[in-house]
């Protein structure tokens, strides 16, 4: 089992993602620069957070059109696992691998805080160890995390059980006051049609060891490990 | 060729920046301001393009990079052929 962390100019969670994958979960993990088309035989591709290309044009727009993304699209077409966190989620949307877009936060401010999430489906390689209804406390750090899609896409996401995480209050209920960035239907993370790609705004990689205050994010990686170790 | 490409949010897409600008204008005493939608434009200079193809080519720039079709519409304007 191998992983690759894709790095763009302006990525700033690439080291966190690398530590998450290599040190905490023991995967042979490559760091792949955006000009490369070689994903080093990875089973799992991690698109980390940050501000690729300084968020020029639109968040994730430039990165989505860089050479490495052609290989990521190819990897995804073959059914390979892809997780995009924060800016990684924005990049996956811009690349057309996930539907919708991330707009400016409703507050118009950069939000750097902890949020409560509810896992909405156990039926994915990223959430099976978390379980439907599982509550997580994870950090967010973004200015553009306000998920948006057209009504037909939203219907499809709901009908196909592709909403992975929603923002909730500490009791686990959807609550507009806790949908801090104003996301449509309080959506914090979504799955691709084949369920092999996850995009999420909160940072599980920053909350996967007790030393950092929370292990809640570890379940996401444990799910991926179980998937790759099991069905490949 | 010189061209200007306008990119603006589709109707129905939340525009928190536009809302904030509208509210700021009202605060300044321009109470008649009902709504603001914020967009952007790009001024482009290119090599020569056959007159019949320029517009289609610019639209391709928009679809491939300048606009995100999920949230944005665009309009191209040729300033100098």
Commentary on this structure:
The complex is a heterodimer of chains A (232) and B (81). With 232 residues, chain A is α/β, with parallel strands linked by helices. Chain A has a single domain (2-228), classed as Class I glutamine amidotransferase (GATase) domain (Rossmann fold), CATH 3.40.50. Chain A has six helices and eleven strands. In chain A, the strands form two sheets. Chain A has a nine-stranded mixed beta sheet with strand order 2-1-3-4-11-10-9-6-7, sandwiched between helices. In chain A, helix 1 (14-24) links the parallel strand 1 (2-7) and strand 2 (28-33). Chain A is globular, with a radius of gyration of 16 Å. By secondary structure, chain B is of the alpha+beta class. Chain B has a three-stranded antiparallel beta sheet with strand order 2-1-3, with helices on one face. The radius of gyration of chain B is 16 Å and the shape is elongated. The interface between A and B is medium-sized, with 20 and 11 residues.
Counted beta strands of chain A? 11
Please report the number of helical segments of chain B: 2
Give start-end ranges of low-pLDDT stretches of chain B.
none
What is the global morphology of chain A? Answer: globular
The structural class of chain B is alpha+beta
CATH superfamily of chain A: Class I glutamine amidotransferase (GATase) domain
Major sheet strand order of chain B: 2-1-3
Q: Would you identify the CATH H-level superfamily of chain B?
A: Phosphoribosylformylglycinamidine synthase subunit PurS
CATH class of chain A: Alpha Beta
What is the total domain count of chain A?
Answer: 1
Second-tier CATH architecture of chain B:
2-Layer Sandwich
- Percentage of residues in strands of chain A: 25-35%
């Amino acid at each position: 089992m191998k992983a690759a962390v894709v790095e763009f100019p302006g990525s700033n969670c690439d080291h966190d993602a690398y530590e998450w994958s290599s040190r905490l979960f023991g995967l042979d993990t490559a760091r792949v620069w955006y000009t490369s088309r070689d994903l080093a035989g990875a089973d799992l591709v991690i698109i980390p957070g940050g501000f690729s290309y300084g968020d020029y044009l639109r968040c994730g727009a430039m990165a989505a059109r860089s050479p490495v993304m052609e290989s990521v699209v190819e990897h995804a077409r073959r059914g390979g696992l892809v997780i995009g966190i924060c800016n990684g989620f924005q990049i996956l949307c811009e690349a057309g691998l996930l539907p919708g877009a991330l707009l400016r936060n409703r507050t118009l401010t950069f939000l750097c805080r902890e949020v409560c999430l509810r896992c909405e489906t156990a039926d994915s390689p990223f959430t099976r160890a978390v379980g439907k209804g599982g509550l997580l406390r994870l950090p967010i750090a973004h200015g553009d995390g306000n998920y948006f899609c057209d009504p037909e896409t939203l219907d499809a996401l709901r009908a196909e059980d592709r909403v992975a995480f929603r923002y909730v209050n500490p009791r686990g209920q959807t609550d507009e006051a806790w949908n801090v960035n104003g996301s449509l239907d309080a959506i914090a993370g979504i799955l691709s049609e084949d369920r092999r790609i996850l995009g999420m705004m909160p940072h599980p990689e920053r909350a996967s060891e007790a030393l950092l205050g929370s292990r809640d994010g570890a379940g996401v990686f444990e799910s991926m490990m179980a998937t790759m170790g099991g069905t490949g | 060729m010189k061209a200007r490409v306008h990119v603006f949010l589709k109707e129905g897409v939340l525009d928190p920046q536009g809302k904030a600008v509208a509210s700021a204008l009202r605060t300044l005493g321009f109470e008649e301001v009902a709504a603001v939608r914020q967009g952007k434009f790009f001024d482009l200079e290119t090599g020569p393009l056959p007159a019949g193809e320029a517009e289609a080519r610019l639209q391709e720039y928009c679809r491939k990079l300048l606009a995100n079709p999920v949230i944005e519409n665009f309009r191209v304007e040729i300033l100098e052929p």
